[in-house]
Amino acid sequence: MKVVALAGGVGGAKLADGLARCLPAQDLTIVVNTADDFTHFGLRICPDLDTICYTLGGIANPDTGWGRAGETWNTLEALKTLEAPTWFQLGDQDLATHLERTRRLAEGETLSEITQFFCQRWGIQVRVLPMSDSPVQTIVETDHGDLPFQEYFVKYRFEPSVRGFRFEGATQAAAAPGVLEAIESCEVAIFCPSNPWVSIDPILAISGIRQALLRARVIAVSPIVGGKALKGPAAKMFEEMGIPPSAQAVALHYGSLLKGFVLDVVDADQEVQIRALGLKTLATDTVMKNPNDRQRLAEKILAFARQELKG
Ligand code: FO1
């Protein structure tokens, strides 16, 4: 079964890894949010791409989900002695990724080409594509003014109250090579349990992607379980945007793009309302604590897609 997964950071990486454990490599394409990317110390940093690639390559930090396992922090410690801005934690091995990506970009390679090369070096066989090769930047509109995403998320620990989001550059940005083709030829597209507002929406904002998905069979997996986000500010964002956070709110957020919806068993009482939206539903344990959980959830979603979304 040809599958395209749309993913952001840590939650998306876990399901992407589960899917990679279930599917032949040539059947899985992962399209990754790059609107979290930013330039820091002159280096191009792509947190979601790196989180997904490190996870798929088995080299991710198992405690944080981002950054690399067995990391050392010598550069960051040296930077602190120089009173440099160290609010964004860059490990020594992780820095090598950013240094080499920045060097290759300056040489004229595209982000897609660089990602493909890094994947090969890290032994990743599934296809990982940035949503676009052009820079797109999420700006979080807050009660403390407009903040670039990483400042909102890491520097201010998502404390400011959100009022809205802008994805600067998204409408001018073309989808990266292979993205639209993968969506057009897939049997199912899966929105991973990533933040709908700042991980999946930026991908949908790239010209042509939403239109291509409208012709595909799309299943979303809720990142909201029991009214709370498993990680990060998704539930807080729903509340601040005036919407009580729930699995149903996630289904409504994606609206007519969806054919199917996966929610956690603890939210099974919302299945009736979600089915009333015309969606097929799967209520299952969606919390992924270890690689077995990732694979089990991916198997369940693929079986659901095969049984419920045929024709
Ligand atoms: N997240 C944090 O909360 N604090 C950090 O210092 C931090 C550093 C970092 C470095 C490299 C990287 O690839 C990711 C990093 N993240 C950090 C995670 C990242 O900023 C967010 O998880 C995503 O952008 C949200 O999807």
What's the structural blueprint in terms of helices and strands?
Layout: E1 3-7, H1 10-22, E2 28-32, E3 38-40, E4 43-45, H2 47-56, H3 74-81, H4 92-106, H5 111-121, E5 127-130, E6 137-142, E7 145-148, H6 149-155, E8 162-168, H7 179-185, E9 188-191, H8 196-204, H9 209-214, E10 218-221, E11 224-225, E12 228-229, H10 234-240, H11 247-254, E13 260-264, H12 271-275, E14 280-284, H13 291-308
Parallel strand pairs: 1-2, 1-9, 2-5, 9-10, 10-13, 13-14
Antiparallel strand pairs: 3-4, 6-7, 6-8, 11-12
Residues 8-10, 36, 47-48, 50-51, 66-67, 88-90, 94, 150, 153-154, 199 line the site of ligand FO1.
Describe the overall structure.
Strands 5-2-1-9-10-13-14 form a 7-stranded parallel sheet, with helices on both faces. A 3-stranded antiparallel sheet has the order 7-6-8. The protein has a two-stranded antiparallel sheet with strand order 3-4. The mean pLDDT is 97. Helix 1 runs parallel beside helix 2. The protein has 13 helices and 14 strands. It folds into 2 domains: 197 residues, CofD-like domains (Rossmann fold); 32 residues, no CATH class. With 311 residues, it is α/β, with parallel strands linked by helices. The radius of gyration is 19 Å and the shape is globular. The structure holds ligand FO1. The site of ligand FO1 has 18 residues, from helix 2 and helix 6.
